[in-house]
TrEMBL record:
NCBIfam families: pyrC_dimer (TIGR00856)
Residue numbers binding substrate: 16-18, 42, 137, 220, 252, 264
Subunit structure of this chain's protein: Homodimer.
Protein known as: Dihydroorotase
Organism: Croceicoccus mobilis
């Protein structure tokens, strides 16, 4: 039995660090594990300008403890009226690594998102030309589409035509939850990849509803049936360069989750790499963890891999019931359980 694993320092290709007190409370969890992270722009107001992204990047750097080498990679929140020139300027200035497409009202803080992808023609042409990745929350929002079908319908109605019309555009389908998504990404060109969260490898929709409603297992896209979890899990541990780590860690203060209308988002940052390690070990695929966590993402983004390494040790790692205080009190994924791996101090 392996008792320690050393891999190149991983990166998180999809994380919500929030702002203000919550940013201060959560930034260190991500920074202690990951060399870089793609920072989601769904603040209020959303990050839609180069100036806003630069200011937010500075606030993140200020929130990361001294002595930790961590680079936030910023994204631009796409709206119906965003100017392609602003996106290109931000990309050229090394401020915007990628741009994020939220279909309007698909998820938390997406009210300013895109109402119709046809409004993005100029933006997508520009991004394709400059080689800037498009990151997608892939769910339709039509009231007549069942919430469990929204990812599959998005792939069929929006993503397939998009990939056909912009064959050279780099596209990441974020936080995939279905066998349909796995199949689409596998069949697409090398310009199409996907991120996978810990929760979508671990829970199916029973975890939300059996024995009572469990708001801390609610995120979007919502967890699906077991057959979909198994397909996503298999893709993640496969070693395929098309799939890489993106936690989608999305902290919401406890009362916003435990509410008559609870927010979507699972806070998994504190134990993210340990959780993934447990999944890979359960699948007998620990040898694929480094590709998923540390190599595939940089290769897709055209960035160097991290030089530093991390070591995970086999050790009981109890997850507290809650973390933080007051307005930053949050319930982490796996609250009250004990994980089998522990990140060794650097
Ligand atoms: N994943 C979630 O359920 N929530 C995210 C938004 C998102 O990534 O869709 C959030 O910002 O809270
Ligand atoms: Zn999302
Ligand atoms: Zn997200």
């Amino acid at each position: 039995m392996t008792d320690a694993i050393t891999i190149r320092r991983p990166d998180d290709w999809h994380v919500h660090l929030r702002d203000g007190a919550m940013l201060e409370a959560v930034a260190h969890y991500t920074a202690r594990q990951f060399g870089r992270a793609i920072i989601m722009p769904n603040l209020t107001p959303p990050v839609t300008t180069v100036a806003a992204a630069e200011a937010y990047r500075q606030r993140i750097m200020d929130a990361v403890p001294e002595g930790i080498d961590f680079t936030p990679l910023m994204t631009c929140y796409l709206t119906d009226s965003i100017d392609p020139a602003e996106i290109a300027r931000g990309h050229a200035a090394d401020v915007f690594t990628a741009a994020k497409l939220y279909p309007a009202n698909a998820t938390t803080n997406s009210a300013h998102g895109v109402t119709d992808i046809r409004k993005l023609t100029g933006v997508l042409e520009t991004m394709q030309e400059i080689g800037m990745p498009l990151l997608i929350h892939g769910e339709v929002t039509d009231g007549d589409v069942d919430i469990f079908d929204r990812e599959a319908v998005f792939i069929e109605r929006t993503l397939a035509p998009l990939v056909r019309d912009y064959p050279a555009l780099k596209v990441v389908l974020e936080h995939i939850t279905t066998a349909d998504a796995v199949e689409f990404v596998n069949d697409a060109s090398d310009n199409v990849a996907a991120t996978i969260t810990p929760q979508h490898m671990i829970i199916n929709r029973n975890a939300l509803l059996v024995g009572g409603m469990r708001p801390h297992n609610f995120c979007l896209p919502v967890a699906k049936r077991e057959q979909h979890r198994l397909a996503v899990r298999k893709a993640g541990i496969s070693g395929s360069a098309k799939f890489f780590l993106g936690t989608d860690s999305a902290p919401h203060e406890i009362s916003a989750k435990e509410s008559a209308c609870g927010c979507a988002g699972i806070f998994n940052a504190p134990y993210a790499i340990e959780t993934y390690a447990q999944v890979f070990e359960d699948e007998g695929a620990l040898d694929k963890l480094e590709a998923f966590a540390s190599l595939n993402g940089p290769a897709f983004y055209g960035l160097p891999v991290n030089e530093a390494t991390i070591t995970l040790e086999r050790a009981e790692n109890p997850v507290p019931a809650t973390l933080g205080e007051g307005e930053t009190r949050v319930v982490p994924f796996h609250a009250g359980e004990t994980l089998r791996w522990k990140l060794a101090a650097a």
